[in-house]
């Protein structure tokens, strides 16, 4: 895929071609400050790894939701392996819970993720996959990003995330962090009980509070923020989330959407608390996440832009035959390892279910 797509419910940004590519966020920010009209792309989960950013040759920004034409049928996709296995993920979470329960150590939360490797019978077209995600999840923020600038020629990151990391339009800043999750149930009565259980869950509310405090601390020097006292419920097809809609204003008009995204990433919603210790723990016990848990977005010469959290996503290989999909969950001292496995499975279904691939 030679380009970039980010389709939010309020508008769509698409690009083609690459004028200049960057594997380092600071270089892309300098290019923007030097007069580039637009940068687009993806930040990896680990800020120390190569990014996939560029100044595109051509760009289109259209208002309103993306409504793809009839989506061609997708080839059959089958799971090859899980990384780690379900049993190993439970064991990892159990070990984390024991560590987090020790009051003498400083870690408070760690996000534990796992991935599923799948194989397609015929090459998958990233744009067709994105269109299928948009059809299945019309309220999601759908993206497809060429990862070539990160040294992954032809590979693509594709997903349908419910989470906006940060958006800036003029001096107005908006965020909607998500943390705290409960899988949905097909029975409406049980599903309603689960939503109420999530809203009243001390474990999930504590997990959510870590994220809100992080945002407050990181953006306090840059923005005046209006943060509600209580989270609200939002839902996808697969899960319920605790969400907090945040609005604010930048203190300095020179602060760009890209600056704000870099200040926030990675949030405790995808990494943990404290960030440096959580990142070290994840690096030690997990396989490389690549761009899962990263950020996808754009920023223009005026500093306006939109960045979303790269969750409910997968990396597609250059030949379109291999899919690596991801799901994760926040682990705190009160976490139940089996419930955490179920949460990751529910999240994996957002992407793999759109390919009719059972997990």
From TrEMBL:
Molecular function terms, GO-annotated: isochorismate synthase activity
InterPro entries xrefs: ADC_synthase, Anth_synth_I-like, Chorismate_C, IsoChor_synthase
Catalysed reactions listed for this entry: chorismate = isochorismate
Annotated ranges, domain Chorismate-utilising enzyme C-terminal: 87-347
One family name in Pfam for this protein: Chorismate_bind
Domain of life: Bacteria
Keywords, ordered alphabetically: Isomerase
Entries under SUPFAM superfamilies matching the protein: ADC synthase
EC code(s) of this entry: 5.4.4.2
Family: Belongs to the isochorismate synthase family.
NCBIfam families per record: isochor_syn (TIGR00543)
Listed name of the protein: isochorismate synthase
Source organism of the structure: Nocardia macrotermitis
